[in-house]
Design goal:
The chain is of the alpha/beta class. It contains 12 helices and 13 strands. The strands form 4 sheets. Strands 3-2-1-4-5-6-11 form a 7-stranded parallel β-sheet, sandwiched between helices. The structure holds NADP nicotinamide-adenine-dinucleotide phosphate.
């Protein structure tokens, strides 16, 4: 990566910042294209003086995207995404039009490679608008930049994730952690939606690897972790690592649909009707696309990483006990 200039859109986000770190460690010059450069200032410390620069650009502006790419960037990474729609931040505007805008700008600028972050489960036939928009975004990107590499991660974990941290935070304030299931919770298969959580560091490693090596152009990689967990097992893991005796309760999806009607209006929605649709389908790799093993990367398990950052959600007394026993 030495001395390559890489433009990373969404570089201030959870996945983007990890990719920026890996790129900077590899010696690349990184241009982080973000709407609010001040919010991304912390990224400057990822590299040497001047190695990481911040560039103001919104995905909704043709000129800003073109300027972020056109000024000598030879590689482009798109990590922009939204989990819910708000005002003009629609799935179509960000996942489809925005992604297409970046791909067109990269092609126009003669960029050598483009890595696009999509999502496992992206499908034009999905019931969820999020998953459909991810599929439409992939198609738009490949139409504009046929050599783009598409990454489809399952749910991603890491210190700053919005998944394990959210449940751990909820476990602090409630005695019940609900999940949704189609059948009786304690019956076989009643553990709810299945996921294959993947470590953010592994996703970043893949992004850098496909940029460094030849032979990945035009490929789609499904990035799924080594273990499949259902929702109940994920919540049990959260309670175990946070030392909470929280009741884990399986509820039918119709309850989720009703809850989402209200929860979607929170400043940061806890659940939206579209997310309930997303949860109705398992999020596991079906093996039809290459993944970690084809890239020669062995993905780490959630058990290895998650306890290291959920520890901070433990009750105060527990933390005190740990501190005392350490002395
Ligand atoms: N996290 C997961 O579990 C997961 C799983 C599967 C797929 N993915 C995909 O991976 C990608 C990265 O996800 P993430 O978890 O890193 O998301 P994130 O933490 O929410 O970061 C999203 C990034 O996109 C930027 N952004 C949003 N709207 C923008 C706009 N209009 N113009 C320019 N930048 C904009 C955000 O910047 P601001 O701070 O300015 O908003 C932020 O830097 C997304 O495509 C997501 O769909 C994530």
């Amino acid at each position: 990566m030495k001395n390559r200039l890489v433009t990373v859109f969404g570089g201030s986000g959870f996945v983007g910042r990890n990719i920026v770190r890996r790129l900077a460690e590899g010696g690349a010059r990184v241009r982080v294209a973000v709407r609010d450069t001040e919010k991304a200032y912390f990224l400057k410390t990822c590299g040497d003086l001047g190695q990481v620069s911040l560039f103001p650009a919104s995905l909704t502006s043709d000129e800003e995207v073109a300027r972020a790419v056109v000024e000598n960037a030879d590689t482009v990474v798109n990590c922009v995404g939204v989990l819910y729609e708000r005002g003009s931040r629609t799935f179509d505007a960000i996942h489809v039009q925005g992604a297409e805008r970046i791909a067109k700008a990269a092609a126009h600028a003669g960029a050598k490679s483009l890595v696009h972050c999509s999502a496992l489960g992206a499908s034009p036939d999905a019931t969820s608008a999020y998953a459909r928009s991810k599929a439409a975004g992939e198609a738009a990107v490949l139409a504009a930049f046929p050599n783009a590499v598409l990454l489809r991660p399952s749910v991603i974990f890491g210190t700053e994730d919005g998944f394990f941290n959210m449940f751990a935070d909820l476990a602090r304030i409630t005695h019940v952690l609900p999940y949704f299931t189609r059948i009786v919770p304690h019956a076989e298969g009643g553990g709810g939606t299945k996921f294959q959580p993947v470590y953010v560091g592994d996703v970043a490693d893949v992004a850098v690897k496909v940029l460094q090596e030849d032979g990945h152009a035009g490929k789609t990689y499904e990035l799924a972790g080594p273990t499949v967990y259902n929702m109940r097992e994920i919540l049990e893991m959260v309670c175990r690592y946070t030392d909470r005796a929280t009741w884990i309760c399986g509820l039918p999806f119709w309850v989720g649909r009703i809850q989402a009607q209200f929860l979607q209006y929170l400043p940061t929605p806890l659940l939206t009707p579209d997310q309930v649709k997303l949860l109705e389908v398992d999020n596991v790799a079906d093996g039809s696309k290459p993944g970690f093993s084809d890239l020669g990367i062995s993905a780490v398990t959630a058990e290895t990483i998650v306890p290291t950052y959920l520890r901070r959600f433990r009750p105060y007394q527990q933390r005190k006990k740990l501190r005392l026993t350490a002395h």
